[in-house]
Amino acid sequence: MRITRYGQSALLLETGSTRLLIDPGSFCEDHVFGITELDAILITHEHPDHCDAARIGALLEANPTAPVFAPAAVIELLGLSGDRVRPVSPGASTQLGDLHIESVGTTHQEILPSIPRCANSGFVVTDTDGKRLFHPGDSYETIPPGIDVLAVPLQAPWSSLRKTVDFVQAVAPARIFPIHDGFLNESGRALSWNLLTSAVGPGIGMYATAEGE
After folding, report:
1. 136: buried, middle or exposed (CB in 10 Å: 19+, 13-18, 0-12)?
2. What HEC string does 102-114 produce?
3. H-run or E-run covering 194
4. Which residue, among 178, 175, 147, 174, has the nearest Cα to 5 in the 3D structure?
5. What's the pLDDT score for residue 210?
6. Which domains does the chain carry?
7. Is 33 in contact with 25 (CB distance < 8 Å)?
8. 3-class SS of residue 31
9. What is the pTM (predicted TM-score) of this model?
10. From the first residue on, what is the mean pLDDT of each consecutive set of 10 residues in the chain (213 residues)?
11. Which residues pair with 68 in a beta bridge?
12. Which of 17, 47, 49, 194 is spaced 20 to 30 Å from 78 by Cα?
């Protein structure tokens, strides 16, 4: 599985025959919404930095047969219907070409008690070699087993360094790389990553992957 990072939490996953795009949100450059030959589009939740409703129409038009895996609120937001709609539920899974997709979790991490929590579905994607990538969306509440690669949110209003370290250590992946860092400038991103690297300790491969890599 080849993984390419885009703005905030967007990932393009590719094998020899399968292409998936996760969370094309408002931090993504326009070219992300022109990606073609997708076998599916996966959206963790409805917040605009994960689902840019104003621009995603172009992506849907460029990939007219690609189903959309997302919580019901996202499906409603985008006005989708018909065969391409794939509402997600915890534990539901499907095989798309070389990749197996499993939905995990139910709810966005709490930001403030006064802010309602929306649905959030993380995704575990497994390739034909059995390697497992976990994209949690905006939640640390679900810890799936046997994760090889973790896309870890680096900075968020619902998180802290302590919560992030606890999450990484609970998942115990072989390697991690950052997502959800669009709120940080270059200095803040480097500081946050260095702090996380020091706190997690040895034994986990740390890859400071930038957008487009």
Report:
1. buried
2. EEECCECCCCCCC
3. helix 186-200
4. 178
5. 87
6. 2-206 (3.60.15.10)
7. no
8. helix
9. 0.96
10. 96 96 97 97 98 96 96 94 90 95 96 96 97 98 97 96 96 97 94 94 90 90
11. 41, 85
12. 17
